[in-house]
Structures are given as C-alpha cells and as structure tokens.
Amino acid sequence: MRTLIGSGAVESLEAWNEAENVAVRLRLSSGVRVNSVTTGLLRYMFGGYIDPFTWKVQYTEVDFIEVERSHPIATNSNELELAMPANRVARGMLWEYEMMGTIVAPGLKVDLKGRPDVVVMLLRPPGPEARIVAGKSRLTASSGDGWAFADLESSPSGGLRIRVTSGGQGFSRVKLEVRRSVECCPGRMTTLNEISQKEKVASLEPGSSGVVEWRPDYPVYEPFLAALSTEPIYDEILSMLRSMGIEARRDLVRASIVLGRPHYVLGDLKPVRTKLRFCLSRRLRRGVVDETELRLEGLE
Questions:
Q1: CATH label of the domain that carries residue 162
Q2: Which whole-number Å values give the CA distances from 18 to 22, 85, 88, 156, in the listed order?
C-alpha cells in the first residue's frame, strides 16, 4: 500500500493487509517519545492561510468520532505496530475559500511528549460498488393549482434516477438540487465553521416531465496511508490532496492552496449531511419544498 509521510517526527511508515484489517508499522525519529496511542474513526480539520513565520496551516483540529482503543505506551521503543479496519472509506469535504477541509477516515493519533502529535489516516475512496440511497422514495410539492412530484430509485451506475412529473399553474420552475454541509474547525473564533455546498441537479418548466440521473463525483485515487502532524505545514496538506486525486496548487503569492474547483466531496457519509431538495418555485413568494436525506449504502 502507498504511504505518505508529512510529519518530521516519523522516520518510516509501512502498511499491509491482514485479514479484515490494515496492519501499520510506524517508526518514529530518534529522540521522539510517546505518551499514548488512540485508534478509531478520526476527524482531521484544517483551514486558513499560511502563517508567514512558521509556514504552518493557521487552524488545525483533530478529534475522534468513534474511539476503538486508547492506551498508554509503557515502552521507550520508537516503533509502533497497530491495526485499523480496511473496509471503511474516507469521507468529508473541501472548500477553496480559506482552504477549509474536513477529512474523516479510520486512523490513529500518537500523543508525543513535548511536540506536535502525529496522525495516521487510511485514505480509501468509495469504490464502484458504492450506491447512493434516498430516505424517501417520493418527494411532493403543491401550491394552489400547481403540483409536482419526483420518484426516486437507485440507478445501475450507483447514483439516483429521478422521474419528475408536474402540472397546473401558479409556479415558475421545478428545481432539484443536492445540498451538503459538514462542520470544520469548530474551535475557530469565526462564523465560518461549516463547509456547505449546493449542486444543481435539474430545473424544469411548469407542466413538463422528465427523467434525470444523478451520481456524486468523488475523487478517484489508489488507497494510501498518510502520516501528518497535528500542526502541519502547507506542503503536508498539499501532498495529501494531490495523492487523493485532487487538483491543488499554491497560489501566486504562496499564501494558500488553490483547488481545481470550489468544492470537493470525498464521500456522502457521516458526518457529511447530504440532502436532495425538491422545490416548486413561485414568483414573488417562497418556494414549496420537500427534501430527503441521501447517503452511501453499505460503507459505514
């Protein structure tokens, strides 16, 4: 399996498949001492511009959504060997504004003495077997004489097939869009503590019908193991994003990272909140809305 070492506290990193797990052997640099190691479903959040004095990312937060094991290290050995589940996929979102990102993946956090900790994440994309499922099979909206409904079913491509029917009067458009959001760096002293995205799926005229097929566009990459610092420099983040098949580069003044598009979605699984919104738009009045949650099936 591919590995990426970003943290200066890590000397070497190895990984291999072992039954339903990925075994990890982590060798730390000479003189680095370990307090404890925690494994589970890890959330790695970052954002902001480059600190001109340290070249580090302005904001970084690391926590666990699920903890599998936490124990102190009684030995002075600088080599650790642990395991993490191989069947869980990475999920989260990236936003080009202030280069905000939330990445959730199986991983481990090594608490070090007197220096920034080390995080190791197993980054694996949703495969071709991944399928989007909806919480409802039909969305409906009506206003006066106007009405519309959308029937939802999974498509062979792994996305959704949406059959829209509408009729009557009193509305201007029938709109379908996917809305996503995820928390990012809640400890920041700012109102921008969430990444959100709206993706237009379809827009139909009153009285029209049609069939739309929608499938999420996730980055495609080979699974790999990444070892990063909890206080990363920008090159660590840049290398990780590129390894995940994400178009990323430094801006002209080297103060931030520019993405190939405004948002990247890594996977529609918790903690990412994903909804399909069905709206009957009305002139000079608020639209009538029905919505349902979307999620990837069988990849928790």
A1: 2.60.40
A2: 6, 10, 15, 32
Alpha helix locations (H) across the chain?
234-243
What confidence score (pLDDT) does residue 75 get? Answer: 55
Same domain for 76 and 136? no
Strands in 124-234 per DSSP E: 131-134, 138-143, 146-154, 160-167, 173-183, 194-204, 210-214, 224-229
This prediction's pTM:
0.91
One-letter identity of residue 268: D
Structural domain containing residue 84: 2-127+218-259
Same domain for 249 and 151, yes or no, is no
On whether residue 264 sits in a domain, the answer given is: no
Write the DSSP symbol of residue 254: S
171-199 residue pLDDT tens: 889 999 999 999 998 776 566 788 999 99
> Residue 115 is inside which H or E element, if any?
none
d(CA 272, CA 285): 30
- Tokens 């580069």 belong to which residue? 249
Same domain, yes or no, for 43 and 108? Answer: yes
- Give the integer Cα–Cα distance in Å for 67 and 108: 9
Q: List, in sequence order, every beta strand (DSSP E) within 21-78.
A: 21-28, 34-50, 57-72
Same-domain check for residues 191 and 248 = no
Tell me what pLDDT residue 31 has.
87
The tokens for 107 are 């991983």
Q: What is the per-residue pLDDT for 157?
A: 87
